[in-house]
Amino acid sequence: MGLRERLRDLTMTPAEHQAEVLQEQSLTEGGDDLTALAPRHAACVCGTVRTVTLPPRRSVPALVAEVWDGKGSVNLVWIGRRSIAGIEPGTFLRARGRVAEVRGVPTIFNPAYEIVPSP
Question: Residue 111: which region, alpha, beta or left (left: phi > 0; alpha: psi -120 to 50)?
């Protein structure tokens, strides 16, 4: 490691360091860059669940999880679910599905997913 890299590491905030580690883990696990997701294309996304929300009651329940890879985020939406065991803030997961854009946010509906254990 050169002097430049060491200086950069010393000046990083804890949040910046965490984001960098998460980006590396996401790439290692085979995740696509979340800032470059294209609508109507299949994607494999990896990252940490930031938030889990339930939209206001409508005719169909839905569970929404925001996944962050240290650089960008994507919403994963499971239609017909109010909860999924293991899907909670802080969980690292890998999900696959087709990307849609909902209100300017990349979104994957009913993705196939795997919870990835922490290294």
Answer: beta
